[in-house]
Structure prediction request, 233 residues.
Amino acid sequence: MNRILLTLGIVLTFHFANGQTKNFIDQPYLETTAKVDSLVKPDIIYLDILLQEKDNRNKVSVEELENKMAIKLESLGVDLKKQLTLSDLASNFKKYFLKQKDVLKSKAYKLKVFDAQTAGKVLVELESIGISNVSLDKTEYSKIEELKLDLKSKAVKKAKKQAEYLIKPLNQKIGGALYIVDKYYQGYNYDAELDEVVVVGYGSRKKTEYKPVEIEFRPIKVATEVTIKFKID
Prediction:
């Protein structure tokens, strides 16, 4: 008896679900796709800094470079506790073995700054104390989540407007949305940008001629695409 009731329940559930599917498919609808995008200036910039002992007669230790770096960064208004971190826990112990007796230590840091101008100043100031191994890790936009929601809202409004224009010549109206799906895109283009900055910023200038480099990182492109099926009344 239990098996019969279970089978009957499964059959009824199947018919109910099948009926719902048919009701959705059988309704007249209009499908439209809309895409909106925006370019934003990155306001979070991460730089990788590698400190290495100098292999020459006037050997400069990593500790000495570290102290000089801290002084320079603080002079630029950098909060060392909040903006400067070790890239990994092993940074304190990384070593390069060149000869049997020579051991050159290295230490990797990640620096967080909030505008391109500060990033340019960091490049120049660190170069002035012999730290030139600085590279761009990534850029971010601090309000990316709010921007994504705003773009989705605009895309939905655009899709609805498109649907209304399409249906108007038929003297019909669109109803509620039967189906909505959205896609999100984000692109970064910064690798070549920093390489250009290093060349243009330093070139063949002497240390006494260094000036803050005026740079701008390429904007981050954020895009949202929505596809909506509107019921036709």
About this structure: The first strand starts at residue 29 and ends at 40. The radius of gyration is 29 Å. The chain is about 40% helix and 30% strand. The chain has two domains: 27-42+142-189+211-233, 44-140.
